[in-house]
Amino acid sequence: xxxxxxxxxxxxxxxxxxxxxxxxxxxxxxxxxxxxxxxxxxxxxxxxxxxxxxxxxxxxxxxxxxxxxxxxxxxxxxxxxxxxxxxxxxxxxxxxxxxxxxxxxxxxxxxxxxxxxxxxxxxxxxxxxxxxxxxxxxxxxxxxxxxxxxxxxxxxxxxxxxxxxxxxxxxxxxxxxxxxxxxxxxxxxxxxxxxxxxxx
Length: 200
Known about the structure:
With 200 residues, the chain is an alpha+beta fold. It is 24% helix and 22% strand.
């Protein structure tokens, strides 16, 4: 279980939307600030170690978009969705597209991420968004998970089933194991989120 630190608001618009949704739902949650942890944070492994949780309790949220090359009807109007999965996994975009009923899916560009969510690539939150949300069932291996808050370096600890209910999300098997997380060294040399989250 996650340790529940004192809760407080984060002064930015994306995070305000997240905390507004949490307050309206009345669900218990915890705010985890990397700067408040008892050691430096260089990647997900550091967060897991400092909180004494499993690495796969830390989730990443990816903004995905319909592949315009495979949308013959109207490539200019691209549907988007959020995919939530463990940092130890990679998004299987074919499975994402199939689950959403799209012809194809791609990771959103930084410009699309900024336009649709106004959040940094390293702090994307599935909470408080009006986009469809898919949650990979592998996250249910643990009762609590950490997800982005809309602000880099600040995460929300929440029960995974509460997260699904709060986001109106669907479960979807949309991940594959990320081999780059096989060793502690490889994890520590990565950014706080995986290269997938940088939305190239």
